[in-house]
Here is the input.
Amino acid sequence: IGSAFDFNADTALIRVGILILVTICFLISASTGLDKGIKILSNINMATAAILVLFIIFVGPGNNGGDGLVIARLFTEMNLSVQVYILNFSENYSEDFQINLKRLQSYEVKIAYFDKIEDFPETNPNDILIDAIFGSGLTRKLSGFPEAVVTKMNETNCEIISIDIPSGLFGEENSHSEQTIIKAAHTLSFQYPSLSFLFPENE
Here is the structure.
């Protein structure tokens, strides 16, 4: 997407934020049988969305995690309910991650580091989980703590929205029969879809 200081990068992520809100509005409509989602869109009533939905954003140490932090900041500016959980399994945080974390820390939003699956947050079916753990650059199967988090996310009754690509899925190969992969209801990808999106077994 570009560096954290690039106007085009922030513009792209703003569009992503809008796409996520649109997705959530339709999820609300589908789950309630009412037109609340359409009302949120037509009235741009973010307070209504804040009451209906808690966004729990799971963030990894790379640029994909940086995207998740930007989304957290944008949602916080919209007065939406946001919690950020940073997977603390590496000290190698990307520059984009560090810049966007510093920006987010100036807002009143819950930011928690966790490295034990016992500290996984409590969820309820109305929550929306945003997967910003790993992007399309992943080249090896998940293991250890990150794998445990992905498994736990899949076990919740929450809708999951992945940023760029579901964490655990490789961008360019399909030999993952025994891999642990986020079961995303929706994936918001940048520029063009990854090759792995085109295989029917990844639907």
The chain has six helices and six strands. The chain has a mean pLDDT of 76. Strands lie at 54-59, 81-87, 110-114, 128-132, 159-163, 186-188.
